[in-house]
Each structure stands twice: as C-alpha cells, then as structure tokens.
Design a protein that fits this description.
Blueprint (H helix, E strand, L loop, with lengths): L12 H28 L19 H10 L4 H15 L7 H19 L7 H22 L6 H33 L6 H4 L5
Helix pairs in contact: 1-2, 1-3, 2-3, 2-4, 2-5, 2-6, 3-4, 4-5, 5-6
Amino acid sequence: MDSPTSSSRGWRTIDIVTVAVLAVVSGVVFWAWNLFWTATGPAFAAFPPAQALLYGVWLVPGVLGMLIVRRPGASLATAFLAAAVSWLLGAWWGLSVLWYGVLQGLAPEAVFAAGRYRTFGRSVSIAAGAAAGVVPGLLDPYFWYPEWTTGWQLAYLVMCVASSALIAGLGSWALSRRLAHTGVLDAFPLGRERVGA
C-alpha cells in the first residue's frame, strides 16, 4: 500500500549528504555495468533490442534517491550526480551521460510530483521506474541505433520500460525497505515507518 508523508519539503544537510553518497555509489556501479553491458553485447547478437532488459540498473538512482530522501528534486539530483560520477570515471558515451542523467532523473521526478511528493509506495515506485525507462527507450534508438527497423526500436522501448519498472522501480522499493530495516534510514520518514520484511 502506498504511504503518504507530511514531512517538510526543505532539504536538510543529511538529505544532501545522502543524495551525494547514493550518487557516488551508483556512479561506481554504473562504471561496472558499462563494462558488463559491453561484454554481454555478443550474447544479444541475434536480437540486439533484448539487451535493453539489462537497462534498469542505470535508472535506479532517480527512484531510490526519492524513496529515501522524499524531497522535491531528489530524483533529478541523484540521477544527474550518479551520471556525473560515471562520466568522471570514464563512461565511454562521453558527455551524453550527463544529459541522459538529467532526463532520467526528470522522468521519475514527474511521477512523484504528480502525487505531490506524498506517495512513495510500491505502485508509484514501479511507475517512476517505468517512466525513467521511457527516456533511453526513445533516445537510444534515435541516437545509437537509427539503422534498426521500427519493430526493433519499439521492442527496445518496451524492454527498457519493463526492465526499468522491475529493476529501478520494484527493485528500488525493495532495497529501500531492506535498508530501512537495518536502521540506517532512521533519520528519514521511511526509517520511521513500519515496513514489512
């Protein structure tokens, strides 16, 4: 069940630090995932759009950051900073990762904003993850795979959205609850809620 929060919209120091920590950790994960993406490319040679099933990992920060911090701008800030760390570590897509980070942060941000930043449950998290997946699902075929058929491009979009809904959406929701159980989120609304295992 989705749970509301009535906490202040103002950012605290701990919110800023948490977003920064999430971004750095995510940026390092991105660096490793970039290698994994490249290494697994040949496995999808018969049907390249299926590689989009791996995409959701890159979209976790925008959802997870908001689920924990619950402040306007948390999705955008976490996603962009994670992309910036990835770029600093040498992501071979160059500066494009920065504006991808902005757009992949704005998409889940819009979903949480539609709920007036009051709802952070599983269904909203999945919707936010799916929204984030629309961004690469539309941009990648245009910029990176223009030679693909329309069918392949549509398949890539569907698989990006599905991967992001599952990994970034449901995965972030589950991870945030696991973290809450450890006590490390006691300074946040999620840490003070009664959450199931």
